[in-house]
Amino acid sequence: MRKRSADSVEIVPSDITPFEKYLSRRAVLAGGIGLAAVQSIGGFARSAYGQSTGALAYTRNAELSVTEPANSYQDITTYNNFYEFGTDKSDPSEHAQKFRTQPWNVTIGGEAEVTGTFSLEDILKPHPLQERIYRLRCVEAWSMVVPWVGFPLGDLLMRFKPTSKAKFVEFKTLYDPKQMPGQRSSVLEWPYVEGLRIDEAMHPLTLVAVGLYGKTLPNQNGAPLRLIIPWKYGFKGIKSIVSIKFVERAPRTTWAGAGANEYGFFANVNPSVDHPRWSQATERHIGASAFGPRRPTLPFNGYAAQVAGLYTGMDLRKFF
Ligand code: MTE
């Protein structure tokens, strides 16, 4: 049922629930309100989980989008990794619904001329939003295709005028065990920390995502703002960011703390470098039949033409 081309596997339409259909189906299940009614609540639609997700104004960036159909809204918002809300895939959608993302501040620090604490509005306001359909490849060897809405991280970082000492950027998620039950366990070191080399952070593909399927991010996907680095394993895409710091040395990341031999700093998708406990050569596409063929994993998750040059001369087995 699937058409395989050189660099992609297309999903047949029956595998996909478009967002509108999903919403209207939920509305019908909830008691017969039609889609129009759902959308007319002050320009806001109510997600399946009771939180309000606002409609966003954006333009579609077709040039930087993959042509494969996106996974369903349901897959993208119910099969999640967000250990602050639990370690099962269903935990974030079940336990993040009351998470407060307003007011929200982001602290900018380190090697930059402009530092301080900024409101979410200050952070987002100057940046026109784009929709980009990206592949997401998780280190656990599954994948999805997600229509993110966001803007280039580089555009945000340039506003703070990083100095020549800014060789890396460190990001942190909110630490609030009262709201994030997973932080009451020591399954990971908290707060969640991630990092990028400055040129990776500045790369035009690196996105600050604030929405998906045209609406603000559901909490379980990292509201109100998270990173997407499409050529890296999904764990680099840190959620619910409260701190951005320009630093001279590579920050120690949470996943490196959990197992430095399993989760490298670069975490570039690489079919020929296996995770110590499983192969990275293929992946299971979420939404496809569990009995269907696994698809081959592509170097840099299919973005090699755009990003391989960032790593010229590096031994990617050593710097995995
Ligand atoms: N960010 C935080 N703060 N906590 C997490 O547990 N999980 C990561 C990443 N960002 C994680 C996180 C992992 S392992 C993946 S695969 C992606 O988020 C999943 O993003 P999604 O749930 O939106 O698909």
CATH topology title? Sulfite Oxidase, Chain A, domain 2
**Which whole number gives the mean pLDDT?**
87
Estimate the strand proportion: 15-25%
Main beta sheet strand tally, sense and closure: 8 strands, mixed
Q: What is the CATH C-level name?
A: Alpha Beta
Q: Helix fraction? A: 10-25%
Quaternary structure state of the chains depicted: single chain
Structural class given helices, strands, pairing? alpha+beta
- Indicate the CATH architecture: Alpha-Beta Complex
How far apart, in Å, are the first and last alpha carbons? 35 Å
Spans of at least 5 consecutive residues with low confidence = 1-51
Structural domain count: 1
Number of helices: 9
Give the ligands present: ligand MTE
Query: Strand-and-helix sequence, N→C?
Result: EEHHEEEHHEEHEEHEEHEEEEHEEH
How many strands in all?
A: 17
Could you state the CATH homologous superfamily? Oxidoreductase, molybdopterin-binding domain
| Radius of gyration using CA atoms only | 19 Å
Shape: globular
